[in-house]
Design brief:
- By secondary structure, the chain is an alpha+beta fold.
- It has 10 helices and 27 strands.
- Strands 18, 19, 20, 21, 22, 23, 24, 25, 26 and 27 form a 10-stranded antiparallel beta sheet that branches. The protein has a 7-stranded antiparallel beta sheet with strand order 1-2-3-12-5-10-17, with no helix packed on it.
- Helix 4 crosses helix 5 and helix 8 crosses helix 9.
- The C terminus is likely disordered.
């Protein structure tokens, strides 16, 4: 009987493991594999010239504005992504919506709160109000729920927010300064089974269309409740016709970002409470479940840096090993902060496209393609975006005021191969290979391999190199 029981237990455990892998994806998947690319994107990366990009369309709302980059640009078509930048004024509420594509949101400036509604998960946040009858009869000891909702997160400058496709999402600026956020949407992800354009589905409000082709028409995008008859909507919600019409926002002209005059009053934990809960989970070895999954992490804090050069700067990488939800949306992020005249080692992205957005300063960027030709050699300054296709070699060099970048990548475990420096491609080759490859002497081969010593990824340029450039 003991052997039979053990066999039954083993079979059940195996079945559970299989089910878990089917639902959430195997954590043993090779980082070299990528399931996000649709076949249609593979013929659209024949780019002869890259350009620094800026938004081509701005849509203003009551309490902010949304800047759209042209997703029909060949660089966006190559990477299979779209990008938007939002500015939310103090007390501004980004109305609830969902998208056909997963996205990463980087907070360039400001702070606030964000809500992400996980389908099928309970409303675990409850605020209470006291019952007047119990106040009189029991001295106010009894309270009844006033509102129930899912978890609300605090965010601040440097946070990365992960939002899966089809999940309802809203955001509110409870700070004193505008919130500025850059969003990259992976429209070529397999999770998007519509076309490769970004489609935003509003749950409330009305918004002017953001795509360039609507500039002349000034078409309005209605929320999805507007598409139902008022009678059907009233029946579905169990409300009267007047309230059903209000839900359809027929005469709302505020746009997708509205002003909350008296401030938004919702139950939320303090940032300190959030940090303590995360530390407790880590110490206790608790694994994340679907409903408790963490959706954000800060990459601005220097203490989180993966590479640090006291004279050059720092690099912080955020992938699915650090933030598991990224495994499901197949995206990752990297923060690069370069000090004056410092540079990032020439490198290429092994398994991802890189969408680089300058958050501050200025820098020179050079990109080379598979033909060994320069496809970009120019300056990137604050507010500009540059897309570097997979395997294209890139070099970033800060100007006198420094250079700050955030890169969104189209793999949850994006890998980089440096060309020079410690743990680089050339450092890993025998001297004889370099001598015969470049027709150089052994001494020159050693200099090529070892001049940078133990420097990894970030270099402080030699003065003579900068002068000759």
């Amino acid at each position: 009987m003991g052997s039979s029981s053990w066999l039954s237990f083993s079979l059940c455990l195996l079945l559970l493991c299989r089910m878990s892998q089917a639902q959430f994806g195997s954590s043993q998947e090779s980082p070299f594999q990528s399931s996000r690319r649709s076949v249609s994107t593979r013929n659209e990366c024949r780019i002869e010239r890259l350009n620094a990009l800026e938004p081509t369309r701005t849509v203003r709302s009551e309490a902010g504005m949304t800047d759209y980059f042209d997703e029909d640009n060949e660089q966006f078509r190559c990477a299979g992504v779209s990008a938007i930048r939002r500015v939310i004024e103090p007390r501004g509420l980004l109305l609830p919506s969902m998208s056909n594509a997963p996205r990463l949101v980087y907070i360039v400036q400001g702070r606030g709160i964000v809500g992400l509604v996980m389908p099928g998960c309970p409303e675990t946040f409850q605020s209470f109000q006291r019952s007047e009858r119990y106040e009189r009869e029991e001295g106010g000891r009894h309270r009844r729920p006033r509102d129930e909702h899912q978890k609300v997160y605090q965010f601040e400058e440097g946070d990365v927010l992960a939002v899966p496709n089809g999940f309802a999402y809203w955001c509110y600026n409870n700070g004193e300064n505008p919130v500025v956020a850059i969003t990259v949407l992976d429209t070529s992800n397999d999770a998007n089974q519509l076309d490769r354009s970004h489609r935003q589905f509003l749950l409330a409000g009305r918004q002017e269309e953001g795509r360039q082709r609507y500039r002349r028409e000034e078409s309005m995008k209605e929320n999805i409740l507007r598409g139902f008859s008022t009678e059907s909507l009233a029946a579905a919600f169990g409300v009267n016709m007047e309230l059903a019409r209000k839900l359809q926002c027929r005469d709302d002209t505020r746009g997708e970002i509205v002003r909350v005059e008296n401030g938004l009053q919702v139950l939320r934990p303090s940032r300190r409470e959030e940090e303590e809960r995360e530390e407790s989970r880590s110490i206790n070895g608790m694994e994340e479940t679907y409903c408790s999954m963490k959706i954000k992490q800060n990459i601005e804090d220097p203490r989180r840096a993966d590479v640090f050069n006291p004279r050059g700067g720092r690099i912080t990488t955020l992938n699915s090993e650090k933030l598991p939800i990224l495994r499901f949306i197949q995206m990752s992020a990297q923060r690069v902060v370069l000090y004056r005249n410092a540079m990032v080692s020439p490198h290429w992205n092994i398994n991802a496209h890189s969408i680089m957005y300058c958050t501050g300063g200025r820098g020179r960027v050079e990109v080379a393609d598979d033909k060994g030709e320069s496809v970009f050699d120019g300056e990137l300054h604050q507010g500009q975006l540059l897309i570097v296709p997979q395997n294209y070699a890139v070099l970033e060099w800060a100007e006198s005021e420094g250079f700050q970048l955030v890169s969104i990548k189209t793999s949850d475990r994006a890998m980089v191969s440096s060309i020079v420096g410690k743990m680089s491609a050339l450092r890993g080759m025998p001297e004889e290979v370099l001598m015969n490859s470049y027709r150089i002497s052994r001494d020159e081969a050693r200099r090529v391999k070892l001049t940078r010593g133990d420097e990894v990824a970030i270099f402080t340029p030699r003065r003579e190199s900068r002068a000759e450039a």
